[in-house]
Amino acid sequence: MGMDRKIEKKKWPPKKIALIGSVVIFVFLVVYFLGFKLTKSTLNVRTDRITISTVERGPFQEYIPVMGNVLPIYQHYLDAAEGGRVEEIYLEAGTFVEKGDRILKLTNTNLLLDIMWREAELFQQSNNLRNTRLSMEQYRLQLSQQLAEIENQLQQQKRTYERYKELIKDDLISKHEFELARDQYEFLIKKKELTIESQKNDLEFRQSQIDALEASLQRMQDNLVIVKQKQENLTIRAPVSGHLTALDAELGEAKSQGQRLGQIDVLEGFRVRAGIDEHYIARIEKGRTGEFDFAGKSYQLIVKTIYPEVRDNRFEVDLEFVGEEPEGITRGQTLHIRLELGDISEGILLARGGFYQTTGGNWAYVVDESGSLASKRRIRLGRQNPQVYEVLEGLAPGEKVITSSYENFGNMERLVLK
User: Fold this and answer.
1) Residue 74 lies in a domain
2) Which residues constitute the domain of residue 401?
3) How many domains does the chain fold into?
4) What CATH code is carried by the domain that includes residue 49?
5) pLDDT values of the chain reduced to their tens digit, one per residue, 418 residues
6) Per the domain annotation, does 203 fall within a domain?
7) Per the count of CB atoms within 10 A, which of 95, 183, 370, 388 is most buried?
8) Do 222 and 134 reside in the same domain of the chain?
9) Same domain for 321 and 388?
């Protein structure tokens, strides 16, 4: 018979092996991340090839860069007040013109025919008025004669009546004869009154006809003056003295009413016309200032006019020089302007640099206190101007940041500065 065998207890149970294995793996991973990974994510960088900027607290003024074109402060546009064909061109673009100088002449056949027709109509109306006035004078003379006859009859009848009044007292005439003389006298008095009233009304009516004809004739004369002024407007003259910088006209070319024909620049000074992204339309106000550099000096501009119409996602403003204009500046020149957007405010500021193209302002390499290591850190930037970014989160005044381009750093977590 076999004897029972004593089973020895195992020194390394599976649970213990698993626990030890886990610890070993954990240690290995820690060593890997601290050692191998660290060396993989670190890059040596020479400090003479990068720019390190210090985060500062200070006044912040938001600017936007805009392009402006230099224009004369006064520009007068030549438009066709009336349509027509170009008949003559007296001056060429580029010449200096004096106020009142003829520049070009248009011809308009319809306008000429209109003037001829209006002149004929005016002549006919003038004849009508003259004939009506003559008729009125003849009628007035006729009425005067009529009234004179009645006056004469009345005077004769008055004498008869006065005489009969005396005769009837002595019964030298019959009562019937006296009454006939009296009635005839009273009838002639009434007739004279009615004739005067009738003549007055008739003359007033005829005078109103003459007044209406005169008013109509005056309107015709005024209209003819206006049409003749239109004919005068076919000759385009310089409204001011200056340089005829543009003239768009060829002999025989048809021009419609209101069409732009040219431009005269009055070179008494300059202004700047700038196009700005419509995103800023609510933030640009009259009185905002801008700066630009020219021939080694800085000059100031001020917004004078805002044109709110948006074209191709841009609107335009006119700026004028504050103080003296730069010597040597010319029409058509392009200026790079730093235009302010708001009032000065206190903020944490970081110098602008090439790092923004890589990070979009979401992170940056921040240098530690030793100055030998720079690590990635999440940050948040806000407004900007041509010199600095406004820091909203992630950086404190006094910290140092690599602000030059990150193009050669790949996706490194740390940079060792040599």
Assistant:
1) yes
2) 42-60+345-417
3) 3
4) 2.40.420.20
5) 444 555 544 555 667 676 776 766 765 555 444 444 444 488 999 988 899 999 999 998 888 889 999 998 888 889 998 889 999 999 898 889 999 999 999 999 888 888 899 989 889 989 888 988 888 889 889 989 999 999 999 999 999 999 999 998 888 899 999 999 999 999 999 999 999 998 899 889 989 988 988 898 999 998 888 888 888 888 899 999 888 988 988 899 989 898 999 999 887 788 999 999 998 888 888 989 899 998 888 899 999 999 999 999 999 999 999 988 888 888 888 999 989 887 788 999 999 999 999 999 999 999 999 989 999 999 999 888 878 999 999 999 999 999 999 998 888 999 999 8
6) yes
7) 388
8) yes
9) no
- Give the type of residue at 99: K
